[in-house]
Amino acid sequence: MKFSKKHVGEIGENLGVKYLVSAGYEILERNWRFSRAEIDIIAKVEEILIFVEVKTRSYNYYGEPSDAIGEHKERMIMDAAQRYMEEIGHEWEIRFDIISVILSGSGGCEKLEHYKDAFF
C-alpha cells in the first residue's frame, strides 16, 4: 500500500505518541510551531521537558529515518524549544529526543526506536 509523505508522517507521529504515553510520558503539545520550525511532540516525564522529533519512513534502503535530521533542523527545533520554554516559564531540565519509525507495508509499525538526548 502506498501512502503520501504527509500520511506517513502522521502515522509515525501517532505511533510515537502512543509509545511515549505507554512509557509514562505526558503529552503537552503536538505539532507546535514557531516561525518556520515545528516540534512534533512536546512531552514531560517527571520534571523533564522533552522535545521530540519523529522521523518516519516506509523503508530504510537509504539509512535510518533518524539519519535525516541535520544540524539545520536541530537548530530550528532548539530555537522553537527556547521560545516554548519562554512562553510557559520553564526553567529546569530539558531534553531533545528522536523517535525513528519504519512502517510495514500495511501502515503498521515495523520498527520504532527512541533516541534520548539525541542532539548532544
Please explain how this structure is put together.
This protein is of the alpha+beta class and 120 residues long. It is built from two helices and five strands, in the order αβββαββ. It has helices at 5-22, 71-88; strands spanning 26-34, 37-45, 48-57, 94-103, 109-115. The protein has a five-stranded mixed beta sheet with strand order 1-2-3-4-5. It is globular and about 45 Å long. The mean pLDDT is 87.
Distance between the termini: 37 Å
Number of helices: 2
> Which sheet architecture does the biggest sheet show?
5 strands, mixed
Examine the secondary-structure arrangement and name the CATH architecture.
3-Layer(aba) Sandwich
Specify Rg, calculated over alpha carbons. 14 Å
Range of helix content: 25-40%
Strand residues, percent: 35-45%
Number of E-state strands: 5
Shape: globular
Order of helices and strands: HEEEHEE
- What top-tier CATH class fits best? Alpha Beta
Instruction: Label the structural class.
Output: alpha+beta
What key attributes describe this structure?
Trna Endonuclease, Chain: A, domain 1; alpha+beta; 120 residues; 2 helices
What's the SSE blueprint?
Layout: H1 5-22, E1 26-34, E2 37-45, E3 48-57, H2 71-88, E4 94-103, E5 109-115
Parallel strand pairs: 3-4
Antiparallel strand pairs: 1-2, 2-3, 4-5
Compact overview of the structure:
The chain has a single domain, classed as Trna Endonuclease, Chain: A, domain 1, CATH 3.40.1350. The protein is built from two helices and five strands, in the order αβββαββ. It has helices spanning about 5-20, 70-90; strands spanning about 25-35, 35-45, 50-55, 95-105, 110-115.
